[in-house]
Amino acid sequence: MKKLNNYIIILSPFILCSGPFFADLFFSYFALVFFFLIKTEFIRSILKTLLFKGFCIFFLYIFLRSMLSDNIQLSLESSLFYSRFLFGSLSIAYYFIEKKLIKKFSISVIIVFLILFVDSYYQYFFGVNLIGFEKINENRISSFFGTESILGSFLSRMFFLVFLSFLTFKISKRINSNFILLFLIINTFVIIVLSGERTALFLFCICIFGISIIEKKYIYLIYSSFFISFIFVTIFSINTDRIFSETFKQIGLNSLVNQSNLDDREIYIYSNQHQKHFITALNLFKEKPLFGYGPKTFRIVCKKENIDIGGCSTHPHNYSLQLLSETGITGFVFYIVFYCFMIKEIFSNRIKNNNNIIFFKISVLGLLINFFPLIPTGNFFGNAINTLNYIPIVFYFVYKYKK
Q1: How far is CA 353 from the centre of its chain?
Q2: Integer CA distances (angstroms), 103 to 110, 111, 392, 399, in order
Q3: CB contact at 8 A, 161 and 366
Q4: What proportion of the chain, given as a percentage, has pLDDT over 70?
Q5: Which residues are within 8 A (CB) of 134 and not within 5 positions of it... i.e. 6 or more apart?
Q6: DSSP codes of every residue in 202-262
Q7: Structural domain containing residue 39
């Protein structure tokens, strides 16, 4: 069983970019494995932590909130098995105690990113990717993710893992390691831009900035890579103004896009539609400020006559506002306390093995990026986004408690 699980973990970078079904199945499987590992020393040490206990209280809270919502069955779809992401993460962390597995996994991560680079450029220049998926539109690529616009999100949320893999994998002295890091940063930046995902670009910039602070010896290399990236983006933009004009539209600076309407300038919070989602969520929060309407119920209650302003959707596209509207201030407090705790952790040196301190801080950085509270996001309780969000938690526990 252990050997099989090791192989699955080594192949997990491929599983994560194969689609939400297999990624969710991966976490669900290891969530079941968790109960077979519960008596191991590594897992038992984690069960005693305040962080784990806080997660369990949150899981219990969202379950009870679902049971008391007006749409119990719908709400339970999100809350009942939400704990699988944490339990699955802990199981995977247990297997990463073995150093050889981390090295093999790191190689898989680098290979997946290289494949995505090749496939993305191929799709950009030829209109279809290597397996026949067409572009989302004329100037926006999605690679193997097809109609799902998450290529940029995947790259930005997983880049911390690429950097960990870069540090873990002992690159031959005959190869210029600085060149490899430069190559990875430049291509990730360019492809995120070509994917048309502004939030992903913002998160990637935060990730790179954070890495430059944590691992200062790469600071000049990182800034150089950004300069080169902008040159590449400019080259790609010669035949289209979409990259720049759509960026301005997304953040609401319509007047910069349409210079002929300078008198009718409107500034939105990210975009007009996003602003409607946000206002709708705030209005719902005002109605039930303590406990909200229940997980996954935004899509139902946003249709209420006194609430609907055209901002209805499956979720309000922001973690903070979703938790406020669906779980109230009570659920939101768990989220903010967790985030503040991780900010504290990134400045902490209290881990079992000081040789892992850089790896630990990069893992925490990944968590801070994936759960960033002030940007447009996916569904907080969604399967696809959580399979990416919880990956940094795996390495947080690995490098925090690994001896």
Answers
A1: 27
A2: 11, 13, 17, 14
A3: yes
A4: 88
A5: 123, 127, 128
A6: HHHHHHHHHHHHHSGGGHHHHHHHHHHHHHHHHHHTTT-SHHHHHHHHHTT-HHHH-GGGG
A7: 2-236
The burial of 84, by beta-carbon neighbours within 10 Å (0-12 exposed, 13-18 middle, 19 or more buried), is given as: buried
Distance between CA atoms of residues 48 and 280, nearest Å: 40
C-alpha pair distances (Å), 309 with each of 16, 264, 282: 36, 21, 12
- Is 311 in contact with 277 (CB distance < 8 Å)? yes
Measuring CA to CA, which residue among 402, 403, 396, 394 is closest to residue 93? 394
52 lies in a domain?
yes
pLDDT in tens, 37-48: 999 999 999 999
End-to-end alpha-carbon separation of the chain, Å?
24
**Could you count the other beta carbons within 10 Å of the beta carbon of residue 183?**
14
SS3 137: strand
Residue 155, phi then psi, degrees to nearest 5: -65, -45
**Do residues 149 and 136 lie in contact, with contact meaning Cβ atoms separated by under 8 Å?**
yes
Q: What is the CB-side half-sphere exposure of residue 152 using CA atoms within 13 A?
A: 22
Residue 366 falls inside a structural domain:
no
Q: Say how far residue 233 (Cα) sits from the centre of its chain.
A: 23
Q: Give the count of domains, the chain.
A: 1
- Identify which has the larger pLDDT, 247 or 320: 320
Residue 243 lies in a domain: no
Confirm whether 94 is domain-assigned: yes
pLDDT band at 173 (very low <50, low <70, confident <90, very high): low
| Contact call for residues 143 and 192 (beta carbons, < 8 A) | no
Residues 6 or more apart whose CB falls under 8 angstroms from that of 257 comprise 245, 248, 249
Contact 401, 356 (CB under 8 A): no
- What confidence tier does 318 reach under pLDDT thresholds 50, 70, 90? very high
